[in-house]
Specification:
The structure holds two protein chains of two kinds. Chain A has a domain of about 45 residues. In chain A, about 65% of the residues lie in helices and about 0% in strands. Chain A is built from four helices and no strands. Chain B has a single domain, classed as PhyR, sigma-like (SL) domain (Butyryl-CoA Dehydrogenase, subunit A, domain 3, Up-down Bundle). The longest helix of chain B has 30 residues. Chain B starts with a helix and ends with a helix. Classes of the chains: A mainly alpha, B mainly alpha.
Chain lengths: ~110, ~170
């Protein structure tokens, strides 16, 4: 405890001499009845139901057939010959590789 | 301090005794924060009303003082936000130890003011202040350091001014 600390403690301690007003009559606040917000709750439930229904009812996206994949592959291979940028070339080459694999899988599928 | 069991049960006498026991300390801290008697009275009342309403949820994880000062500080913050536009003018300058203390505290920003008041006036330890204010211990130490520095500068300035006046 240094001198400054002592001085500050002494001075702020003056607050203890503050006259205190008489104790007021204090009663606990009556408990607030929380109402369930019905409208937002109903809206949220409806949205959930709609979302669930959409997952079941919407048609699945059809998988691309081998012809479409082959077409896309040709397209990309043609593009690849014209691209000079190294980074872009490697990205396109990666996509070509993936499409070749997809084509192989599609042709093996019964 | 009055036990909390009766207060929790809703016993009116126990509640009154409990409020009477805490009133001076809560009021003093409210005065340290607001600097105005009327505001301090309102804040202390709000704090004790809220504490009585929440007493069933107080499990004794901290001391009653720490818990009450936490409510007080929270109430002060919300009041300050609410009353931002209708802030009272500063109290007229008066003399005496209470006014000296309030004038010193008024030099500090809110967070440092409550920290300094709890530490120097209420005599809480750093960890108790930290629990009451919901901040880590190092934050309390840092705030005390900053408050001490500001107050020391103020005190040195005041002393220099008095010496000049005497000369």
């Amino acid at each position: 405890m240094n001198l400054d600390d002592e001085r500050i403690r002494d001075l702020l301690g003056g607050l203890r001499q503050a006259p205190v007003p008489p104790v007021p009559e204090i009663r606990p606040a009556p408990p607030v009845q929380r109402r369930v917000p019905l409208v937002p709750l109903a809206a949220a439930a409806a949205m959930l139901v709609a979302l669930g229904a959409s997952l079941f009812l919407l048609p699945e996206r059809a998988a691309a057939g081998p012809a479409a994949v082959a077409h896309r592959l040709d397209d990309l291979e043609t593009k690849l010959t014209r691209v000079e940028h190294e980074g872009l070339r490697s990205l396109l080459a990666r996509e070509v590789e993936l499409l070749r694999r997809e084509l192989r899988l599609a042709s093996e599928r019964p | 301090m009055e036990g909390l069991d009766g207060v929790r049960r809703g016993d009116r006498d126990a509640q009154e005794r409990w409020v009477a026991a805490w009133w001076p300390r809560v009021y003093r801290m409210a005065l340290a924060l607001t600097g105005h008697e009327a505001d301090a009275e309102d804040l202390a009342q709000e704090t004790l009303v809220a504490a009585l309403g929440a007493v069933s949820r107080f499990r004794g994880g901290s001391s009653e003082a720490t818990w009450l000062y936490a409510i007080l500080f929270h109430k002060h913050r919300s009041r300050a936000r609410r009353l931002k536009e209708e802030r009272r003018p500063p109290a007229p300058p008066r003399e005496g130890p209470v006014e000296d203390a309030l004038a010193l505290l008024a030099k500090l920003p809110d967070a440092q003011r409550i920290t300094a008041a709890l530490f120097y006036v209420e005599g809480l330890s750093v960890s108790e202040v930290a629990r009451a204010l919901g901040v880590p211990g190092p934050t309390v130490r840092w705030r005390l350091f900053r408050a001490r520095r500001t107050l020391k500068r103020t005190l040195d300035g005041t002393r220099a001014f008095q010496i000049c006046k005497e000369v």
